[in-house]
Amino acid sequence: MTMKSNVWKRTSIVLILAMILIATACTSNNGNGNIAANNTSKDGGTSTPSTDTTTPKEDDKKLSGSLISKELKTLTLHMHVGNRWAFDDDLPVFREAQRMTNIELKGTASKSATDSAEVFNIMMASGDMPDIVHYEKKAVYDKFGMEGAFTPLNDLIDQYAPNIKAFLEKRPDARKYMTAPDGNIYFVNFIPDGNTSLVWLIRQDWLDKLKLEQPKTVDDFYNVLVAFKTQDPNENGKTDEVPLFTRHKINGVRDYLVLWNARRHTYLDNDKIKFGPLEDNYETAVQNIRKWYSEGLFDQEAFTRGTASREFFLASDTGGASHDWLGSSAGYNDTLKDKVPGINYVTMAPPAGPDGVHREEAKCASVSEFGWGISSTSKNKELAIKYFDFWFSEEGARLMNYGIEGEHYDMVDGKPKFQDWILHDPDKGTLDLLDADGAQVEIGFPQNFDYEKQWMNKTALDGVELYTKGDYFVEQLPTLSYTAEEKKERDNLDTTLDTYIKEQFQKWVLGAEEMNDSTFAAFKDRLKSMGVERLIEIEQAAYDRYLKM
Ligand code: CA
Q1: Cβ–Cβ under 8 Å, residues 165 and 158
Q2: 336 Cα to the center of ligand 1, angstroms
Q3: Which of the listed residues 8, 85, 321, 469 has the most CB atoms within 10 Å of its CB?
Q4: Beta carbons within 10 angstroms of residue 522's beta carbon
Q5: Confidence tier at 11 by pLDDT (50, 70, 90)
Q6: Ligand 1 centroid to 228 CA: how many Å?
């Protein structure tokens, strides 16, 4: 019992840490392989709203630059992130913001606490609220907002936050995301930039040896995998190649469904919510995955091997292709170049389905759950919203993206360029170094993907370009808001259905159960008896509300 709960705790911490990495650098995420994003817009890129240096309207017309107040003012802030990080008043980036705005932040969350949700709940329950509250769960802060704990920001933004206002006009997806079910905005969210997360990767050097092209279609892909399996591309005289491997167990195997235009869950089809496993494509896809598995194209331990798979198959020069996080996959050509001479593990476009369409399901969120709001008891609401607005101004966004000019970066040809020590530390990654000084922290600000491009290697940059230019991403279901009853019902249905769907998927792929039209029909009947149609109805209603927002 105790052991089980410890395992659970550890797992949940790992998941939370993975989420933070998604928030800060989606491409680089090394996470658990779930589809990262479900809220995006087609124009997912960040645009730092350009603005002239805004002179606050009210208090003092003589204030210049970003100064919000003539005298130094202090705002209190609750910020404790991901069970690991509490706001430190002396973070250089926030001190620099203080120099620019005359607003100082004073953190109220305990630095020794390790449970962010717990310190948040204690603070909320105490009624002793700081001016600004940072948090990372939309359903939770929206609920508190609707109950009156947070200030509706709509009018404050209109009056005092020209940069946020301009941003939300340009990005209606972000406005809708930030809007709670009652129509008010309670939190201003972090706006991540860059949309590539998981990609298809293949051993280009193996293709070259076998004189094969990168596969364009799912049928080409099959032929390439058979060649990998049978033609000894690692040239050791043994048939030890494993064409496909995954770190993500069942979810990794389910990544292949979309190659036949099938989905694992709810998805959008022309404003209609559909459920993947109920569709005919799902049967086709599972039949094919089952065939690939039975022919040994998949790692035969794909469902259980997990995290170690990538390192194992690449370092032993036996793995051919995978679907994985770009950022964490892109480094292997460098790290393995001595051990596996000639290794060239590169991204490829998703092979097109039978209908000729290339599809990538995974896409980084274009708005993050992380954000901050103003407590309804604050006496400094106007200052606080102006301070929020500063981080959406050109200089504020630059400060949060790149750190301090002259310390972390220099302006070169009108663009911020990181200093060498940030890019080439022997022990620490760029993001860790920035984070330690308070840059790229998940407050409400528009991220600029360029900051990440400066430290990505060629494999990663090529992948980002390939997926962004190709725009292979399938239409994403936005993050929807539910009433409390809907949410409860939905989550219950979801859990029951998901367990059954995964179980059945695994049985079919492993060949443990027959799969034919009649067993598939029985599977769909079972989903219906479990309430799948009600789930679709709840999702459709929430989506229809979203469209009207
Ligand atoms: Ca071999």
Answers
A1: yes
A2: 18
A3: 321
A4: 11
A5: very low
A6: 9
